[in-house]
UniProtKB/TrEMBL annotation:
Name recorded for this polypeptide: Dehydrogenase/reductase sdr family member 7-related
Domain of life: Eukaryota
């Protein structure tokens, strides 16, 4: 009788999860915190350093945070685009932020040697940085066997090594100031690899290994680590993708009929995950989350599904 009750409870639990993950645009934990967790307002007055802030997810997270009175360091290569984002952030803040509360920091994250100088500039301007949001990165589209090895190296220099170096600088700052929060933009492809983006998949899997290790190491230093895993969103990410050849961009743009999160919704979900210091957060148009849930918790069933759908290509970011 007891075993039957346990079995029934387990079945109900699985069905509950299956239904929710099929209809939600984020994982169940993130959905719970959106309804019942800490408000983004909790971050008001804190300083957030955002790389890749000139477009896409970085830009949208900056707008959401500015709306809630969060002070910002906007870092990317294109200064004119950063100034545009700053202007929009000041407008959306509705008086919560002044000009000095948003620092534009032109920066190429692949120039590792410049990281210390840029971080010192930012920390000197504000006195303290509370959150580092490692968001800069690029995706890829290519056949596995055609990828030039230089592409793998460039992908890791941008998506992994630049993130590690800047984070190590930030950690020293956080340890000296009583703690802080490291946030990393990974991808759903960091959870389960998808075809035709092998170098990108590999770089995102690497981030999970590095930052899951960091989280357990730094608990005693009050340093939190969050890994954000967005799926496809309406950004310029696809156009900027690496291919299999050096110096080449994929060049395609998204279509209005594509099944993607809006940039704003993606930014909103990221901001909620940051405010609640979630270890990991998944987000994407339904039924993507159920697909990820299946891959993690029922790998054998997932493998059968992949084999049965071997001719179906899912265009993930």
């Amino acid at each position: 009788m007891i075993l039957a009750l346990i079995g029934a409870f387990f079945l109900i639990y699985i069905l509950f999860y299956a239904i929710l993950t099929y209809i939600l645009d984020c994982d169940i934990q993130l959905a719970f915190y959106e309804k019942f967790g800490k408000s983004i307002d909790k971050l008001k007055g804190k300083v957030v350093f955002i790389t890749g802030a000139s477009s896409g997810i970085g830009e949208n997270v900056a707008l959401i945070l500015a709306k809630h009175g969060v002070k910002l360091i906007l870092a990317a290569r294109r200064e004119n685009e950063l100034e545009r984002v700053k202007k929009n952030c000041l407008e959306i803040s509705d008086g919560k932020l002044s000009n000095d509360d948003i620092l534009v920091l032109p920066m190429d994250v692949t120039d590792i040697s410049s990281h210390q100088k840029h971080f010192e500039t930012a920390s000197k301007h504000f006195g303290r940085i509370h959150i580092l949001f490692n968001n800069a990165g690029r995706s890829q589209r290519a056949m596995w066997e055609d990828i030039d090895l230089s592409i793998d190296k460039q992908m890791f220099e941008l998506n992994v090594f630049s993130v590690l170096n800047l984070t190590r600088i930030a950690i020293k700052h956080f340890k000296a100031n009583g703690g802080g929060h490291i946030v990393v933009t990974s991808s759903v492809t960091g959870i389960v690899a998808f075809p035709f983006s092998a170098s990108y998949d590999g770089s995102k899997h690497a981030l999970h290994g590095y930052f899951n290790a960091l989280r357990t190491e730094k608990l005693k230093h009050n340093i939190k680590v969050s890994i954000l895993c967005p799926g496809p969103a309406f950004t310029n990410f696809l156009a900027e993708c690496f291919t299999d050849k050096p110096g080449e961009k994929y060049g395609l743009t998204t279509k209005p009929t594509d099944k993607r999160l809006t940039g704003y919704r993606c930014g909103e979900l990221c901001a909620i995950a940051i405010a609640n210091e979630l270890n990991e957060a998944w987000m994407g148009c339904p039924p993507l989350i159920s697909f990820l849930f299946l891959s993690v918790y029922f790998p054998n069933l997932f493998n059968w599904f992949v084999i049965s759908m071997k001719n179906y290509y899912v265009n993930l970011n």
